[in-house]
């Protein structure tokens, strides 16, 4: 998932995979289990990124068609390697150019708050869905239990209030149950349901937690990349002190995504 207005935010597929892609990959099977799709469906993964969700669709949903769309050609190269049975193309979430009503399942992982116009992206998803189909997506609980990011920004904002400009807990109010529900209804969907998807995130030590923040790809790493060395070190130590650390240095955090699904009314 990429925002074309921020060309440097989601640049490196490998850095993104270490920072966030691997956690999306772990949430994807929970999301598909909750969606409970019928086999032999036609699928669109909008904002497919490096293919975390597409890969699980291909493995477990028995699709007869699987299409992925993302603004990043670099991400799509990785996705095509991982999911060779799918078709991937560069496109805009708000205007894919794909024919209306051609998919049974129009889904997205972690796209919504990075779309230039989230409501228009939802209208596009509804437009692409065929009769009796489903629109469904998941986003991180940025303001609550996406603790990988929450622990970082809660510590960073005490030292540098400017960190709030990169904090999706502040900047993505749609990523909460009631705003998600209302956004789906505003896009013409009914039978809207929202649920929490929870996974653990374990790190063998602080460096394993911290190193993905140095990759420059994603909101928090982009913020870290722009810091002077003194401020970066102060934030690093503040984050270290705030993390729950076991006797052998291990760190265990909660990761929550909000999932939402609906039908076109």
From TrEMBL:
EC number: 2.1.1.-
Family annotation (InterPro entries): Methyltransf_11, Methyltransf_Superfamily, SAM-dependent_MTases_sf
Gene3D superfamilies named in the record: Vaccinia Virus protein VP39
CDD domains assigned: AdoMet_MTases
One of the GO BP terms on file: methylation
Superkingdom field: Bacteria
GO MF term (any one): methyltransferase activity
Entries under SUPFAM superfamilies matching the protein: S-adenosyl-L-methionine-dependent methyltransferases
Domain Methyltransferase type: start-end pairs: 44-136
Name the record gives this protein: Class I SAM-dependent methyltransferase
Originating species: Deinococcus hohokamensis
High-level lineage: Bacteria, Thermotogati, Deinococcota, Deinococci, Deinococcales
């Amino acid at each position: 998932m990429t925002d074309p207005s921020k060309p440097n935010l989601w640049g490196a597929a490998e850095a993104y995979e270490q920072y966030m892609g691997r956690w999306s990959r772990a949430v994807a099977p929970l999301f598909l289990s909750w969606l409970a799709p019928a086999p032999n469906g036609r699928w669109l993964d909008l904002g497919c990124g490096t293919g975390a969700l597409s890969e699980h669709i291909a493995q477990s949903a028995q699709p007869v068609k699987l299409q992925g769309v993302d603004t990043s050609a670099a991400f799509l190269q990785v996705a095509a390697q991982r999911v060779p049975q799918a078709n991937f193309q560069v496109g805009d979430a708000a205007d894919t150019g794909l024919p209306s009503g051609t998919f049974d399942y129009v889904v997205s992982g972690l796209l919504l708050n990075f779309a230039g116009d989230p409501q228009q992206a939802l209208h596009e998803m509804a437009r692409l869905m065929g009769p009796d189909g489903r629109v469904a997506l998941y986003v991180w609980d940025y303001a609550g239990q996406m603790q990988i990011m929450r622990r970082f920004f809660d510590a960073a904002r005490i030292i540098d209030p400017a960190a709030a400009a990169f904090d999706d807990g502040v900047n993505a109010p749609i990523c909460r149950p009631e705003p998600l529900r209302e956004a789906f209804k505003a896009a013409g969907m009914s039978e809207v349901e929202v649920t929490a998807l929870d996974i653990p995130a374990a790190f063998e030590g602080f460096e394993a937690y911290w190193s993905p923040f140095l990759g420059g790809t994603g909101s928090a790493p982009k913020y870290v990349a722009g810091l002077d060395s003194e401020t970066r070190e102060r934030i690093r130590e503040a984050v270290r002190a705030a993390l729950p650390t076991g006797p052998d240095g291990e760190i265990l955090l909660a990761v929550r995504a909000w999932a939402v699904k609906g039908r076109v009314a």
